[in-house]
Amino acid sequence: MSAIRLLVLGAVRQHGRAHGYQVRSDLEYWGAHEWSNAKPGSIYHALKQMAKQGLLHAHEIAPSTAGGPPRTEYEITEAGDQEYFTLLRESLTAYDQKPDVLSAALGFMVDLDRAEVLRLLAERVRTIEEWRKSVTEYYTPEAGPESLGHIGEIMNFWVHSADTGAEWTRGLIARVEGGAYTFAGEGEPFVGVLTEGAENPYATGERHPGDDR
Question: From CA 51, how far away is CA 20, in angstroms rounded?
Answer without folding.
Answer: 12
